[in-house]
Amino acid sequence: MPKGITRIENYKRRANGWWVRLQSRGEKFSKFFKDSDYTSKTAALRAAREHHRQLLRDNPKRSRQENAERQTVRTGKIVGVRKVWQTRFGHNYEVWQARWSPKKYQRRVKTFSIEKYGEREAKRLAIEARLQGLAEMSKR
Fold first, then answer.
1. Residue closest to 34 by CA, chosen among 56, 55, 9, 1
2. 21-25 long-range Cβ contacts below 8 angstroms, 24+ apart
3. What is the pTM of this model?
4. Residues 23-40 pLDDT 10s
5. How far apart are CA 83 and CA 112, in angstroms?
């Protein structure tokens, strides 16, 4: 059974059928296929599957590029850029870190020391590195 299609059997309300649900790019879609509206349970399932396939065609998933470029709406921070503590050679220090994924199962990380560059410059460099990394993704 494809993800997004569920069997509902409510004998009290005589609502037996297949429920199709999909959420894509913040929009929700749902439709119920009652067995009684079709010739049989399998005919209702066939219609539900076809509807689900059509929804997937009309509403494709975000690409890896689009997903990476999203910004966190609530905080306004750039996704993939964060401030972290690192330990190196027994010394703890804060850095701004940029992360991105040029290919599936591959991650790139660049860090910029606050001690070396200062708070604002390290953050600016991390944001710039993140944006360059995203630009690399679009070239592929």
1. 9
2. 22/52, 22/55, 22/56, 22/59, 24/55, 24/59, 24/60, 24/61, 25/59, 25/62
3. 0.56
4. 888 889 999 999 989 999
5. 10
